[in-house]
Design brief:
The chain is 34% helix and 39% strand. It has two domains: 145 residues, no CATH class; 234 residues, no CATH class. About 2% of the residues have low confidence. It is α+β, with helices and mostly antiparallel strands and 386 residues long. It contains nine helices and 18 strands. It starts with a helix and ends with a helix. Strands 4, 5, 12, 13, 14 and 15 form a six-stranded antiparallel sheet that branches. It has a four-stranded antiparallel sheet with strand order 3-18-17-16, with no helix packed on it. Strands 6-7-10-11 form a four-stranded antiparallel sheet. Helix 5 runs antiparallel to helix 9.
């Protein structure tokens, strides 16, 4: 036990972890060129190991410790060293506060990675929304629209769609067979039918990946489909991308949801960004976009919104602009952008329950360093006077 304790409390372990962490940051930065930011975050920093898989093999080999492993070892090392070495005395109080701040910083970062959710809400002037959407992840929505007042939705995450050939859900009276799934796709016309072709995965931050899926619905009445679904069907510029010469009615038919009937019930299928529903509604009253005179460079853009929540009776107006977000119900709404035409505002929505921990941790480190420095300075001054 003493040997184990000495290993976890040793300064050598601290140095090794810090060196490996520097290497991880360097490797991750280089890998972003090929893999992109988000894949590197998941495979390098939000993991215990970086895995290498040979092209011809069906196995993986760990080649470098990941962010979770290094962060966990540093946290254990710091706590164990506190328990073994530090005594809560006045002359060491500053060091104790500094290390407590570092521990809080590591724990807070872990909770941020596990609990933080970023999404966006695109609203057109005059319209309202009670949900935000993910900018990265998609879901297959199976909607029972039989009831005129209420829709029953079963949402299947993208990871499930990509990893399964047949999907069954306890709330669905049928099974869904996945024929193919593309992480990125382009629309095309096959006669008068809309289809989607696989496209290379985009890694650049300014590019988007728009997924698509081909599926059929397996019922005891027979097969429904096939259906070709994609997030492209929610894009306003889909028609312009396919062709400019279609009639209006044909255009609307292209982007209409996939529908089928089973046992006298009506269902719709849609591949869409993951939705995060709210117990309140936000209405965009007015969007303002000011430019520097004689240029197209944005000077300021802001959204005047109305927040409505029936269960609390709230009904108030809020102005959201740069560096002045709306903080409400544990979420923060930032003015993130806008679409051409200046009628659609894009609000970035961030939910991070542990957002306060980095500020508290940095304040603790600052206070601890100041206390330790001033206590040594005071002792030195007294000796100098004597």
């Amino acid at each position: 036990m003493n040997r184990v304790l000495n290993i976890f409390t040793s300064l050598r372990l601290t140095v090794i972890c810090l060196v490996l962490a520097l290497g991880l940051v360097f490797i991750g930065t280089i890998a972003q060129v090929k893999l992109g930011l988000y894949i590197v975050q998941d495979q390098f920093f939000n993991s215990y190991f970086i895995w290498w898989k040979p092209q011809s093999g069906n196995f993986k080999i760990p080649v470098w410790p990941g962010g979770y492993l290094l962060g966990g070892l540093l946290l254990v090392n710091l706590i164990a060293a506190h328990i073994k070495r530090f005594e809560l005395k006045r002359k060491k109080l500053g060091i104790f506060i500094v290390h407590a701040g570092l521990i809080l910083l590591l724990v807070g970062q872990l909770f941020s990675q596990l609990m933080q959710v970023e999404s966006y809400m695109a609203i057109e002037e005059g319209s309202s929304k009670n949900y935000s959407e993910s900018g990265r992840a998609s879901e297959l929505a199976v909607v029972d629209v039989t009831d005129a007042e209420t829709d029953t939705v079963v949402a299947i995450p993208q990871k499930v769609i990509a990893g399964n050939k047949e999907i069954a859900h306890q709330q669905l009276p049928f099974k869904i067979k996945i024929d193919s799934f593309f992480e990125n796709a382009d629309p095309k016309l096959d006669g008068e039918k809309l289809d989607f072709l696989q496209k290379p995965f985009e890694v650049a931050m300014e590019k988007r990946n728009i997924p698509a899926v081909h599926l059929t619905v397996q019922t005891d009445e027979g097969v429904k489909g096939p259906f070709a679904l994609s997030n492209w069907q929610t894009e306003k510029n889909l028609i312009a991308i396919i062709a400019d010469s279609f009639t209006r009615n044909f255009n609307e038919a292209l982007v209409a949801p996939a529908r089928f009937t089973y046992k006298a019930r009506q269902y719709e299928l849609a591949l869409r960004p993951v939705r995060y529903y709210k117990p309140y509604t936000i209405q965009l009253l007015d969007f303002t976009h000011d430019r520097y005179k004689g240029t197209e460079i944005p000077k300021n853009y802001s959204s005047r919104v109305k927040l409505m929540r029936p269960d609390t009776g709230e009904n108030r107006e809020v102005l959201i602009y740069m560096n002045n977000p709306l903080r409400y119900s544990g979420e923060t709404y930032y003015q993130g952008g806008f679409e051409p035409g200046d009628t659609i505002s894009i609000l970035q929505v961030v939910r991070n329950p542990s957002w306060i921990t980095p500020y508290v941790a940095c304040a603790m480190v600052t206070i601890g360093l100041l206390f330790q420095f001033l206590s040594h300075l005071t002792a030195f001054a007294k000796k100098r006077i004597a």
